[in-house]
Design a protein that fits this description.
By secondary structure, the chain is an all-alpha fold. Helices cover 61% and strands 0% of the residues.
Length: 218
């Protein structure tokens, strides 16, 4: 190990990623997220690189395997959605307004597109994924708990009901013209949210969908 100018042995420094490399990585993840929503997780890498504005070599340098890119996109969407829930809880004085704000923000994140990405060879037990999922569940559960305790959210629903609805509303429909449906997402989501607010206008069939229900294998 080498010595410093003062004669003290210096620890080997781990090089930090350059700013331009970090920007390229962010552009790649952002472009992949958009294209996974539009075309599914099997979209060609060269199309992702083109949308990100980088060369194919740059994309492969950051993500040599598709599984690594899918993993990064899933973590990014989860992290961003968690921050939406936390911001809504902190900034909205009305507890149901916080739920509503989160739901529309999560719809813009297109969290329903995560479902096909979590299939196949994706490692559902990866430590990073488990940490992000726990953060997201805690934040969204907190929104629901506060709204129900305040009497603003009907008592016969659970957070899984909202997450299932978001998944169904924000996942692209099969077919080449599915993207034209995007303009209906927030409209139909608002109709759903109206049904969550008290006073309840009907008796719901079945039982509430909990986070535990969503973790069960299909």
């Amino acid at each position: 190990m080498g010595e410093t100018a003062n004669g003290v042995c210096g620890a080997r420094r781990v090089p930090r990623p350059r700013a331009d490399a970090l920007r390229n990585r962010e552009r790649i993840v952002g472009a992949a997220r958009e294209m996974f929503v539009e075309f599914g997780p099997d979209v060609p890498f060269d199309e992702i690189a083109r949308r990100a504005g980088v060369g194919n070599a740059t994309l492969y340098r950051h993500f040599p395997e598709r599984a690594a890119l899918v993993h990064e996109v899933v973590l990014s969407v989860m992290s961003r959605t968690t921050e939406l829930a936390r911001d809504a809880a902190e900034e909205e004085s009305d507890t149901f307004d916080a739920v509503r704000r989160f739901a529309h923000g999560a719809a813009d994140e297109r969290i329903g597109a995560l479902c096909p990405m979590l299939a196949g060879v994706f490692d559902l037990d990866h430590p990073e994924l488990l940490v992000e999922r726990a953060r997201l569940e805690e934040a969204v559960q907190g929104l629901f708990d506060r709204a129900q305790q305040a009497g603003r959210l009907r008592a016969d629903v659970a957070v899984g009901d909202l997450l299932v609805a978001l998944s169904q509303l924000t996942r692209p429909l099969p077919g080449t013209g599915c993207l034209v449906m995007d303009r209906f997402v927030h409209r139909h989501l608002q109709l759903f949210l109206d049904g969550l607010e008290t006073p309840a206008r009907s008796v719901l069939p079945g039982t509430a969908a909990t986070l535990e229900d969503l973790r069960q294998p299909s």
